[in-house]
């Protein structure tokens, strides 16, 4: 079964109570953990994993992972590679299903968590596998280590189960560069080009997205896109992956047909979470040839997708250009 918690699929460690020695984001790296002896930083030996401080009182340490692909979980692997004298003696795993894009506070205070792996002993420097028999669809998992220590990788193997709403509203990406989409204007491109927004695939780091400088006025940043042709948008994707402390607080999408020049709302101003792939079903029957994304007030976005359908007139025009050899 595929690992649903891979960073490459859009998973993220959205919270941990402690990662003093080694950051929790290492848990979901794709490659196996590596070790270089005698590589000391100001916090001690550098580990390619998640390591918490030594507890001096009762308790546990925890990390919450948002699955890149929500689904049914069949098993997890708690890999303690290279942790020999500092691995946790036991672990447990819980999971929850939350619709939308919950904040950390919502996950901690309101989510209903189901135990999918009871407290179990683990060995150091070992891939510790655990079978999961739950049949529900989950969106987040919570790894608990008893009481503290280090874990190199956390694998969550299962089968992806998509929200049916996203299967019936998406066609081609009207904004994609490979489909003929084009950036026509933007307010700011201080750190990186807005063309990155329309690139294929997922961004592999912050530098592969669009990031603006910090605004010190009351305005906001924006970008305009000419679509592949006249079309109707059915699904909007705003991906803030990799942008942790510099994602926009909110964003909106407007569209227009350049024949009349009137802008109209497609997605109203909507709050965004950092390091998250957001998808929104929209109901807008008016065709567009250009879209504008406003971010409030500034920040970075990895990808912008506008899934929808070309109008019959647009298809005919594209086919005519293709047959005539016109660009």
From TrEMBL:
Is Hydrolase one of the keywords? yes
| GO biological process per UniProt | allantoin catabolic process; purine nucleobase metabolic process
One molecular function GO term is: allantoicase activity
Pathway where it operates: Nitrogen metabolism; (S)-allantoin degradation; (S)-ureidoglycolate from allantoate (aminidohydrolase route): step 1/1
Reply yes or no: does the keyword Metal-binding apply.
Answer: no
Q: Which reaction does it catalyse?
A: allantoate + H2O = (S)-ureidoglycolate + urea
Per UniProt, which keywords does this protein have? Hydrolase, Purine metabolism
- Give the source's domain of life in one word: Bacteria
Q: Which family does it belong to?
A: Belongs to the allantoicase family.
| Name recorded for this polypeptide | Probable allantoicase
State the organism's lineage.
Bacteria, Bacillati, Actinomycetota, Actinomycetes, Mycobacteriales
- Gene that encodes the chain: alc
